[in-house]
Amino acid sequence: MSIQLVEGVNENINEIIERWQLLMKDEKGEKFFHFMPEQLVEKTSSEFAALMTSNIYEQDIVNTEKLKEFTVKVVRFGWSIKFVNKAIDNFSKIVFELLEEKGVIEQSNLRFYMTLFDNWILPLRESIIEAYSVEWDRTVSLQKIALQELSASLIPVFEKISVMPLVGTIDTERAKLIMENLLEGVVKQRAEVVLLDITGVPVVDTMVAHHIIQAADAVRLVGAKCMLVGIRPEIAQTIVTLGINLNDFTTTSTLQRGMQEALGLTNRTIVEVEQS
Predict the structure, then answer these.
(1) Cβ proximity of 104 and 5 under 8 Å
(2) Beta bridge pairs of residue 229
(3) CA 165/CA 154 separation, integer angstroms
(4) 3-state secondary structure (DSSP) of residue 102
(5) pLDDT at residue 156, rounded to an integer
(6) CA 48, 52, 53, 56: dihedral to nearest 10 degrees?
(7) CB-based contacts of 64: which residues, under 8 Å, 6+ apart?
(8) pLDDT number for residue 242
(9) What are the residues whose beta carbons fall under 8 Å from the beta carbon of 162, sequence distance 6 or more?
(10) What mean pLDDT do residues 28-57 have?
(11) Which of 48, 50, 90, 136 has the fewest CB atoms nearer than 10 Å to its CB?
(12) What H or E segment, with its residue span, contains residue 255?
């Protein structure tokens, strides 16, 4: 690696980071540099600069520890792969322009420095994007597992009455898990009434309604009654607009009202007791 390149980056790293931040703030849809605390922005920018210069002495060798630390953070901060790629482009662009301003890069050695930059930036870009992709996949996988564990459990709340709170998007894979846990729970808990709480489901479309109807039919086959609770006004409007038939369901707007209905179906009621 050229001594002039190394010295030029080291001597001007603070100015490089400052210019890089300004460029990143101008990116369309950028939120991190505008809304995060200034101290966090400065720290993250310094870490990115350290990562970008980690292979500047020996090309093709990237500091794996810095690489892992940085990718974990930017995935958590919500940086997209497009934004990461743009950050790399902007950093190399600023370094190139600054070295031109300092007279290090000129017309006579332009081709040499372009090759030098390719040898520096390309392996770095590949390493960062690969590490980012791995970390993103790992994060999404963990979130998916956590969501499945949280949103597909049948909870006994009273004798003969159980509730299954559903959270997040319901796709075919999750619908299968819901069905399995629902049927197994109904039999194990000897439930007579099951409340499916869709308060945490953001969208109910035809496919989601189909999965819910299938679950209710399966519950009836094992001798229990299924109720649908947590129907918000916008969900009710969607169901009507799509022409989804929920006539076989007892439906309520809240879990509280659904619980009152469930107690009635099991010949019980909530009574206020006056304290003497």
Answers:
(1) yes
(2) 197, 252
(3) 8
(4) coil
(5) 93
(6) 170
(7) none
(8) 80
(9) 154, 155, 156, 185, 186, 189, 191, 193, 194, 195
(10) 85
(11) 50
(12) helix 255-265
135, 75 in Cβ contact below 8 A? Answer: yes
* Alpha helices, DSSP H, located in 63-109: 64-77, 81-101
What confidence tens digit (pLDDT) does each residue in 203-252 have? Answer: 888 888 888 888 888 888 898 999 999 988 888 888 888 887 777 778 89
Q: Please write the tens of the pLDDT for every residue from 135-166.
A: 888 888 887 777 666 656 889 999 999 999 88
DSSP sequence for 186-209:
HHHHT-SEEEEEEEE-S---HHHH
What's the pTM? 0.56
Distance CA 139, CA 246 (A): 37
pLDDT at residue number 62: 67
Q: Give dist(CA 243, CA 247) in Å, integer.
A: 11
Calpha distance 211→204 (Å, rounded): 10
More confidently predicted of 119 and 156:
156
Contacts of 189 (CB under 8 A, 6+ apart): 154, 156, 162
What span, in angstroms and rounded, lies between the C-alpha atoms of 60 and 118? 11
Strands 161-167, 155-158: pairing kind: antiparallel
Question: By the 8 A CB rule, do 270 and 260 touch?
Answer: yes
How confident is residue 276, by pLDDT bands cut at 50, 70 and 90? low
157: DSSP letter: E
Q: How far is CA 207 from CA 39, 170, 183, 212, 219, in A?
A: 46, 9, 20, 9, 19
Q: What is the mean predicted confidence (pLDDT) over 94-120? A: 89
Nearest Cα to Cα of residue 23 among 92, 76, 70, 71: 92
